[in-house]
Amino acid sequence: MKIFEIITEAEARVLERGEVVTLARGGHVTPLARDTLKERRIVVVSEELADETDGILVPEANIRAVAVAADHNGAPLARMLEGFLRGRGLAVQPIADGDPTTWEYPDAAEAVAVLVARGEVDAGIVVDGAGIGSAIAANKVKGVRAAMVTTETMARYARQHNGANVLTLGSSLISEDEARAIVVTWLTTAMREPRYIRRLAKIRRLERRQ
Q1: Closest CA to 183 of 153, 208, 155, 148
Q2: How far apart are CA 122 and CA 116, in angstroms?
Q3: In degrees rounded to 5, what are phi and psi of residue 42?
Q4: Count of alpha carbons within 13 Å of 63, Cβ hemisphere only?
Q5: What region, left, alpha or beta, does residue 6 occupy, with left being phi > 0 and alpha being psi -120 to 50 degrees?
Q6: What's the average model confidence in pLDDT over 54-80?
Q7: pLDDT of 9-65, one tens digit each?
Q8: Is the pLDDT of residue 96 over 80?
Q9: What's phi and psi for 147, nearest 5 deg?
Q10: Which residue ranges make up each domain of the chain?
Q11: By Cβ atoms counted within 10 A, which residue in 138, 140, 145, 164 is the most buried?
Q12: Cα 105 to chain center, whole Å?
């Protein structure tokens, strides 16, 4: 991440949308720059917090590549979402395993979670009957934070407050229209607040202790 002693309005304007930058100890962000950074979804992390998190915990704000997988129950909804995401200009990596009737949610969740954890995609989506099992399975992969979501509000909180990098959906709980709205909200919500990122560092410490 770039490290700044001061971030001015002019500097905020030339940063890439969705970028994560580090503010040096004792650094300063001008009032006008704060508005521009917020509008451009740029995340500013203090140098102290960056030291602790290595910048790894902040989920990618400018999502370009998404992995999508489903079990047999979620396959139709997942296929719809693949086309929807491509229509929005995203690179989609669909994941399937031969006979869809034997593709179970732990398999789908693992396949997506591993790609996200390795940084091969920016985010992942898994669809099963209820979304719960996929979230449980995906969260077993180190570095993955999967959230089962049924509303746009939950989608916003999952990203903004909890830094979820995998979204799980239940095909029996939501309609196609609801799924599209949830996905758009989740993909376009950034995690900016240092206090939320600091909480992710605590989660990572829990993960490491296990």
Answers
A1: 155
A2: 6
A3: -90, 130
A4: 29
A5: beta
A6: 84
A7: 998 898 888 777 878 877 889 989 889 988 887 878 776 555 454 445 666 667 899
A8: no
A9: -130, 130
A10: 2-58, 65-188
A11: 138
A12: 20
Q: Does residue 209 sit in helix, strand or coil?
A: helix
pLDDT of residue 77: 96
Report which secondary-structure segment, H or E, holds 134.
helix 132-138
Reading the block at residue 2, the tokens are: 């770039």
Which of 20-34, 102-116, 166-180 tops mean pLDDT? 166-180
Second CATH level (architecture) for the domain 65-188: 3-Layer(aba) Sandwich (3.40)
Amino acid 77 reads: L
**Residues 53 and 200: beta-carbon distance below 8 Å:** yes
Give the residue from 82, 11, 41 showing the smallest Cα distance to 191. 41
Burial 147-161 (b: 16+ CB within 10 A, else e): bbbbebebbbbbbbe
CA distance 196 to 98: 40
For residue 8, CA distances in Å to 32, 46, 104 come to 7, 16, 51
Strand partners, 95: 69
**Rounded-to-10 torsion of CA 78, 80, 84, 86:** 70
Q: Which spans in 43-90 are helix H?
A: 47-53, 75-87
CA angle 72, 99, 128 (to 5 degrees): 15
Please tell me the predicted confidence (pLDDT) of residue 44.
80
